[in-house]
Structures are given as structure tokens and as C-alpha cells.
Amino acid sequence: MPSRDTNGSVVSDEMYAQIQRRLLESGEWDRIYRMLELKLNESGWMDELHDHAKELARQMYPISVRKMTDSVSSKASSEVPENVKAEVTAKIRQYLDSQLEK
Question: Which HAMAP family match (predicted)?
Fold first, then answer.
């Protein structure tokens, strides 16, 4: 099923796979991932998520891995700071623009 990019344009599965392969092969994926990890840590996002998981585990008996994963995943994706999303998106766009110029 085709995906939509942040502008609402349709990106085919094949194109998505090609982009992902280029990012991996060039090493850009790792650079962007490290930047994302650093920005999330600096923003306190990782600490908040860790605290949420600990509190959830304290309240849950018996602990359900499925429920923990669902709750933490939902919170994690919904609470990524907008500035971090924007920075990572800009970095990916910059890389793609540089690839299109070649």
C-alpha cells in the first residue's frame, strides 16, 4: 500500500524501499538516527518515557508485555517534540535533495 509523505504526496512502496536502501548504504540512516537519539535525549523525551514505563509496571500485576508495549509505543510516538520531528524531517529532505541533484 502506498504511503503519504508529510506533504500528502503518495510514495510507492518501491520508492520507499529504494530511499531506505540508499539511506542505509550511504550511512546517512545511522547519522540521522544518532541525531534523533541525541535530540530526544536532550529534550527529556527518553526520561519521560522511561518514567512512564516504570510507573506502568508498578501499577500492573501481573505485568503484561503486550499492554506495556502498546502503552509505551503509543505514548512514545504521540509525544515526540515537534521541533525534533521537524529537524529530522529536514535532514531527510536535505539528503534526498542532494541525491536528486546527482
Answer: ENY2_Sus1
